[in-house]
Design a protein that fits this description.
Layout lengths: L2 H21 L1 H16 L7 H41 L2 H24 L11 E7 L4 H20 L3 E9 L5 E9 L3 H5 L4 E8 L8 E12 L14 E6 L15 E6 L4 E5 L5 H27 L6 H4 L5 E6 L5 E4 L5 E2 L2 H5 L4 H12 L3 H4 L1
Parallel strand pairs: 4-9
Antiparallel strand pairs: 1-3, 1-5, 2-3, 4-5, 6-7, 7-8, 9-10, 10-11
Helix pairs in contact: 1-2, 1-3, 1-4, 2-3, 3-4
């Protein structure tokens, strides 16, 4: 068989073996059998909370096991196809087999990273807050570009995006926006994006065509399950209502339907304005506040374990995690991992996996060499 095919085979087999070790394959299969048996037991559903927890764990483990088995099946099929094409001297079919192996290799790499998403809330949906920095229209436009970038990333991975709150910029972009990203491991992936993002470009709003630097901050926290208990004293929460801004129906812009909650002890504030009634916005805002406080608790645990280093500092103004330079050269560089690319348009169109993957591996301290 051709050397390039053999090399791809070796890489994919190494990834599969790594996935098996991370899962502790034999233990994972026994546990999956136990979970399947529990789900089939009708008495489990006498306790809905426990049943939901078991079902979630079963789905997660089943997906991980199936990912490995799928890689093994597809690798065997592609190698068989490549061997047949090689024997017959069919270069076109051999090229097709190489393409299949490249695709399998990419899937295997992503599966390796997915295996690192073992945090308590990594599998949950995520809230993403984007806020423009100082600089008026320039920064507002940059925040709007980030909104588009994360929306494109989520859609490319089969996730859905709901806008919960948005304050438009006066001329362009947004001053602030809060998204809810729904999909498997949404928080696990997006948590690596928390921080300050820096843009350098020739301003389309400057008649002198001068170069401008803009900043916007991104904050990410998990959507928490209803069965996670977060105690909030209502006396510690200030509620403000106001008239929603932006597009809306006949009702939404005519009443004080938007709701902002401020947790006084921590200073955490959340807002929701997209629902038609104040009651609905209040309900969503409470869910967001609960999620923020839960994320704060997770952060305290991680800091105690030194799993994260100075996360609060990393997201402060002046401590950017990534630079997007469009002028005088084209380069996007992550300042934490040193990963960089000249495909700036691809990144702004949502191609973020290389940055997320490197940051994720760095944060959990797990790379291929360390795990081997």
């Amino acid at each position: 068989m051709r050397l390039d095919v053999e090399a791809a085979k070796a890489d994919i087999e190494q990834s599969i073996e790594l996935l098996r070790r991370r899962l502790d394959w034999d233990v994972a299969l026994r546990k999956l059998d136990e979970l399947n048996a529990r789900v089939e037991d009708p008495t489990l559903w006498n306790n809905p909370d426990e049943a939901q927890a078991v079902s979630r764990e079963r789905s997660r483990l089943s997906a991980q096991v199936e990912a490995v088995r799928s890689l093994e099946r597809d690798l065997a099929d592609a190698l068989g196809y490549a061997e047949l094409a090689d024997e017959e001297g069919d270069e076109a079919s051999l090229d097709e087999a190489r393409a299949q192996l490249r695709a399998i290799k990419e899937r295997a790499g992503r599966a390796e990273l997915e295996a690192l998403l073992s945090g308590e809330a990594d599998g949950n949906d995520a809230y993403v807050e984007i806020n423009s920095g100082a600089g008026g229209t320039e920064s507002n436009d940059w925040a709007g570009m980030l909104l588009r970038m994360y929306t494109r990333w989520a859609q490319a991975h089969g996730m859905t995006v709901d806008v919960l709150e948005e304050t438009a910029g006066e001329q362009a972009g947004v001053k602030s926006v809060t998204l809810q990203v729904k999909g498997t491991n949404a928080y696990g992936w997006l948590k690596t994006e928390a921080g300050v993002h820096r843009l350098v470009r020739i301003s389309p709003y400057d008649s002198s065509a001068r170069r401008h630097t803009s900043f916007a901050s991104v904050w990410v926290y998990p959507v928490v399950d209803d069965n996670i208990e977060i105690e909030i004293n209502p006396a510690d929460v200030r509620t403000d209502t106001y008239r929603a801004s932006g597009a809306g129906g006949q009702h939404v812009n005519k009443t004080d339907s938007a709701v902002r909650l401020t947790h006084i002890p921590t200073g955490i504030a959340v807002a929701c304005q997209t629902q038609r009634s104040q009651h609905q916005n209040r309900e969503q805002a409470w869910k967001m506040l609960k999620a923020r406080l839960y994320e704060l608790e997770l952060e305290k645990r991680e800091a105690a374990q030194q799993a994260l280093e100075d996360q609060k500092t990393d997201i402060g103004w002046g401590h950017q995690i990534r630079s997007y330079v469009l002028q005088p050269y084209q380069m996007v560089k992550d300042l934490r991992t040193e990963v960089e690319t000249s495909d700036t348009q691809g990144v702004l169109d949502g191609d973020l996996d290389q940055f997320m993957g490197a940051a994720l591996a760095q944060r959990v301290g797990a790379t291929r060499d360390a795990a081997a």
